[in-house]
TrEMBL record:
Reactions catalysed, as given in the entry: Hydrolyzes free adenine bases from 7,8-dihydro-8-oxoguanine:adenine mismatched double-stranded DNA, leaving an apurinic site
Organism lineage string: Bacteria, Pseudomonadati, Pseudomonadota, Betaproteobacteria, Burkholderiales
Key words of the record: 4Fe-4S, DNA damage, DNA repair, Glycosidase, Hydrolase, Iron, Iron-sulfur, Metal-binding
One Pfam family of this chain: NUDIX_4
Entry keyword annotation includes DNA repair: yes
SMART domains on file: ENDO3c (SM00478)
Described purpose of this protein according to its UniProt entry: Adenine glycosylase active on G-A mispairs. MutY also corrects error-prone DNA synthesis past GO lesions which are due to the oxidatively damaged form of guanine: 7,8-dihydro-8-oxoguanine (8-oxo-dGTP).
Ranges for domain HhH-GPD: 47-206
Species in which this protein is naturally found: Orrella marina
PANTHER family named among the record's database cross-references: ADENINE DNA GLYCOSYLASE
NCBIfam families: mutY
GO biological process: one example: base-excision repair
Protein name (Swiss-Prot/TrEMBL): Adenine DNA glycosylase
Length: 371
């Protein structure tokens, strides 16, 4: 392990080198860059959590068209937010985004808090996200430590151990603080914190990648412990691979005329708060669900093609069943319109529907004619 004095020397070299590199080789034209607007930077930081830039860009742009500022977001409905977020995954982010906007309006008179510590008190904003917002918007000397930055520091400083463990995280946070540009350096370069923070993100995303890191292009390679000891493939310490389980889920695609039955999923768990199709673990259980929902009408269940959907911890095998209620049948009564709806197919865009389920529903408009 590298002695602490050597790590101190290493840390001092990071900021000046990284800032120079970011100016010439970093990413400088992303939609949320070249602005000090906390709303836009906060939105991008939340969307970018565990999500790639290319995936985020169209979502970010559509979101801003509907909610151009934090007040419009605070006044919007959660359903609208979830609809715009559908397909981006990790849906608790969208729920926290909405809650955060409301808190900013209520507690901060519609303006974002002026420092990282205050930002961290808001829903969905952790220490690293708060630091990124404060660095980009206010030039605050605040350390970030997202997943990409953990990987950079583990390799650069030669840190072993699970990067997600408490002990390793404490060590990484201490090094992240140590590596910050000095106050005197920032005084001479007012954009220093923004460049440094963006540089860390760029380095982890484009050079010091999880597999096949491009060490020859890395501005920090001459002082990198992993490069010097030939451990770029073994650092960070790999997590023990968990066995991915498969889970069968039978879903009910129940239609009536040109409408489909949707229900809102629970507040916690997979696809929390999204509108989806009723589901059950087995075919007999799904038939019971149909009997309950369709009341006295008992349409025939027709199997559709099964497909798999990858989630973070397991693979979901979705087995859809179609049930078409007769056009002249009386529409089954809804007991709670906040949790269940008959939705016209042309109005699906207003509802937040899981990415795995939406094509299934939309597909019926291509194969069936509704009168």
């Amino acid at each position: 392990m590298t002695p602490s004095s050597t790590r101190d020397d290493q840390a001092l070299k990071i900021a000046p080198t990284l800032i120079r590199w970011q100016r010439s080789a970093g990413r400088n034209h992303l939609p949320w860059q070249n602005t000090a607007d906390p709303y836009r930077i906060w939105l991008s930081e939340i969307m970018l959590q565990q999500t790639q830039v290319a995936t985020v860009i169209p979502y970010y742009q559509r979101f801003l068209e509907r909610f151009p500022d934090v007040i419009s977001l605070a006044h919007g409905s959660l359903d609208e937010v979830m609809a715009l977020w559908a397909g981006l995954g990790y849906y608790s982010r969208a729920k926290n985004l909405h809650a955060c906007a409301k808190r900013i309006e209520q507690d901060w008179q519609g303006s974002f808090p002026p420092d990282s510590r205050s930002l961290e008190t808001l829903p969905g904003i952790g220490r690293s996200t708060a630091a990124a917002i404060a660095a980009f918007c206010y030039g605050e000397r605040a350390a970030i430590l997202d997943g990409n930055v953990r990987r950079v520091f583990c390799r650069f400083f030669g840190i072993e151990g699970d990067p997600g463990s408490r002990q390793t995280l404490l060590e990484l946070w201490a090094l992240a603080e140590l590596a910050l540009p000095s106050s005197s350096f920032i005084e001479t370069q007012p954009d220093g914190m923004r460049r440094y923070t963006q540089g860390l993100m760029d380095l982890g995303a484009t050079v010091c990648t999880r597999s096949r890191p491009d060490c020859q292009s890395c501005p920090l390679r001459t002082d990198c412990t992993a490069v010097a000891t030939g451990r770029t493939d073994s650092l960070p310490t790999p997590k023990k691979r968990k066995i991915r389980h498969e889970k069968d889920v039978h879903v009910l695609l129940m239609t009536w005329q040109n409408a489909v039955y949707l229900h809102r999923r629970p507040d916690k768990g997979i696809w929390a708060n999204l509108w989806s199709l009723p589901d059950a673990p087995t075919e007999p259980d799904l038939k019971k669900v149909l009997t309950t929902l369709a009341d006295k009408i008992v349409p025939r269940l027709e199997p559709m093609a099964a497909f798999s959907h990858e989630l973070t911890h397991f693979r979901m095998v979705i087995r859809p069943w179609r049930a078409s209620l007769p056009d002249d049948a009386a529409l089954p009564a809804l007991t709670n319109t906040d949790r269940e709806q008959w939705v016209k197919l042309e109005e699906l865009g207003r509802y937040g529907i899981p990415a795995a389920i939406r094509p299934l529903i939309e597909g019926i408009t291509q194969t069936c004619h509704f009168s």
